[in-house]
Amino acid sequence: MEKEPKRYLIATACNQKYEDFLVNDWLRSLKENVDLEGIDILVMDYGLSPNACSKLTEQAVIVKEAKHTKGLINNMRFIELSEFLKSNPQYEQVILCDSGDIIFQSDISMLFELESEKIRAVCESISPNMDVLVNDKVIENATEIKNFLRENKLMNVGFVVYPTNVFLDMCGDIFILLKDVNVWGAETILINYFAYKNGFYELHQKYNFIPTTSTLKYVIKDGKFYLSNGEIIPVVHNAGGKEMWRPIENFGYGHDHNIPRPMVIFFLRTFYKSLSLLRKFVRVFERS
Q1: Which tens digits make up the pLDDT trace of 219-273?
Q2: How confident is the model at residue 284, as a pLDDT?
């Protein structure tokens, strides 16, 4: 009897605010640049319009209406995806990524086979101090967790590859510790805690390239992002929370997009570095 071929899943969550980008930039770039043989696409629907849902299903995207909506999408998407994976055990690996600020420029399907028993993610070279966002009211044992992560670079959780069994174990663990599902950044701390405790594989920065926190030099030509050696960057992530802090203006997929905002990038890098140095100084002072 022939063994069933492996199936993989690329999953994201989205609401109506970002649905145009989801359809016209995220999905189009994914379809045009990634080898999707054996890979399904899942969009968890947190209030998409009927028109957007129709466009997605026309392109063979699985659209799942979200049931867990009492909390930030960033947090609740993990519960939603874990339930989907339990009901669909055919998927051996899953990528969970953002959809409102990511484009794909070349193939990433090989990441499913790379170090396939581990979480795979990019660590930010210039890490924002996300731990300031959480305390014991947000996360159980927050002080202990923050101390554990203190000397480590943060994994960016906007694009992560998981073995399905590891993802399910992680979700079980982090939602025991998460007290407040409405706090932005809490999932970043908890996923990093799980990954550093259990081990993970650090991907090259080009697989989740964030202009603000990456140290790689890059150029933009005709709307496309390249490393300084001419290599096209597979995954570009215009992270920044609020629009005013995003490093790329008119971000999207196509030649008429993507204008760098050097002052925003300079300010945020300087702020992150200064805050990290200050925290190191405080720790040295506390030990003395």
Answers
A1: 999 999 999 999 999 999 998 767 777 889 999 999 999 998 877 777 676 766 6
A2: 44
Closest CA to 26 of 48, 1, 6, 50: 48
**Between the CA of residue 87 and those of 60, 90, 155, 253, 285, what are the distances in Å?**
19, 9, 28, 33, 52
Bridge partner list, 10:
41, 95
Alpha carbons 206 and 195: distance in angstroms, whole number: 20
Q: Residue 10 to residues 7, 27, 207: CA-CA distances in angstroms?
A: 10, 11, 14
φ/ψ of 8, rounded to 5, equals -125, 165
Residue type, 220: I
pLDDT at 102 over 70: yes
Separation of CA 183 from chain center: 16
Q: Taking residues 50-64, what's their average pLDDT?
A: 98
Beta bridge partners of 200: 119
Q: Is 118 exposed, middle or buried (0-12, 13-18, 19+ CB in 10 A)?
A: middle
Q: Which two tokens stand for residue 225?
A: 């992002």
160-207 pLDDT, tens digit each: 999 999 999 999 999 999 999 999 889 999 999 999 999 999 999 999
Q: What is the pTM of this model?
A: 0.91
